[in-house]
């Protein structure tokens, strides 16, 4: 048994007694007895010995390896640290050193970078691996929503208006002559009809121009013109205003006639020049 070798010791090798040559670890006339190789076993660290034929093996408890369970198994051999964490053995225990952004005894947890909330001015935080993103409310910008967005860039105010920034809004201060939220409306300076008489008002920027009729003058056509200014009468005639609508009368000097004294009377018609003298009218 147990792999023993049978040797025939009879005469001529025919039916006779035999002898069993037993392998190491077996004994008995037929090698039927398995010698207990665990009697003097070298199993260490409390490992039980398992007898075999001519040898034995050690059944190592957790934490030990080797033929005789003589070597300690490193707790880091199983790579217990997750997410790139490094393992260091301390007093037989696996200690994990985690990469930035991870926590936990095995680096199994994503560290919440949004606690406490790093986003200012009401911004919401979105966690990521060792970083975060801030979603800012309207009116704020910056990696942490820390900046008031300048609503005046570019300047939304028209026609030279100045912009005053506020939170998600702005105010336009308009120059004289313009109005509206964007200073885009030209104020109608003719609205109150400042021109007198039948004068036409022409609107401008923060002002107006009055186009006066012939009988008026002044910035608002407020002055009635005298028909005698400038003097319409010729040859030294004297102008007299007649009524209020530009009517005048010319009092002509001797030697002139016509509505404007424009006709020089020929005084040589009845001249008294004697002895063939030539008369020169004046």
TrEMBL record:
One of its GO terms (cellular component) is plasma membrane. GO terms for molecular function: calcium ion binding; Notch binding. Residues 1-32, 34-70, 72-108, 110-146, 148-184, 186-222, 224-262, 264-282 form the EGF-like domain. Pfam families: EGF. Disulfide bonds join 22-31, 60-69, 98-107, 136-145, 174-183, 212-221, 233-250, 252-261. It comes from the Eukaryota. One of its GO terms (biological process) is cell morphogenesis. It is found in: Secreted. Gene3D superfamilies: Laminin. Keywords: Disulfide bond, EGF-like domain, Glycoprotein, Repeat, Secreted, Signal. Residues 1-28 form the signal peptide. PANTHER family: CYTOCHROME C OXIDASE POLYPEPTIDE VIC-2 (PTHR12916), UNINFLATABLE, ISOFORM C (PTHR12916:SF4). This is EGF-like domain-containing protein. The lineage of its organism: Eukaryota, Metazoa, Echinodermata, Eleutherozoa, Echinozoa.
